[in-house]
């Protein structure tokens, strides 16, 4: 798993510490680690104290890769901050999306209600048509009976 860490040189048996700050959850999703965790590493001794690094750590806490985070941070600045994307603008977008979702839900509910009403009306019309057909048949039977009586 990829982590953002800060190099800490305190001389733990010739090893530097990597203070883990954040962990990557998916390609563009990171979470800040709630507890400070330090991983000891001989590889980290090559980096300056306080430097931010990206560290690939295995499930058994073995360091697979370590590199400076400068290019990664500059890429973040280029991708997000140069376009004016800020936490506030992201929050506003989230709120707008939530309002849109709620509005869509309300419209969908209204549409479903209207569909039910139309279905009920269609059923009423079909029942009326059936009644009219039945009454028409009865009238035709009566007319044929009346004609038969008149011919007698």
Tell me the strand percentage band: 25-35%
Contiguous runs where pLDDT drops below 50 for at least 5 residues:
none
Estimate percent helicity: 40-55%
Strand order of the largest sheet: 3-2-1-4-5
* Total helical elements: 2
Question: Number of DSSP strands?
Answer: 5
Cα distance spanning the termini: 102 Å
Mean pLDDT: 89
Name the shape in a single word: rod-shaped
Structural class: alpha+beta
Order of helices and strands: EEEEEHH
Query: What is the CA-atom radius of gyration, in angstroms?
Result: 37 Å
Largest sheet: 5 strands, antiparallel
Descriptive notes:
With 152 residues, the protein is an alpha+beta fold. The protein has a domain at 2-83. Helix content is 49%, strand content 32%. The protein is built from two helices and five strands, in the order βββββαα. The protein has a five-stranded antiparallel beta sheet. A hairpin with a 2-residue loop joins strand 2 (15-26) and strand 3. It is rod-shaped. The termini are far apart.
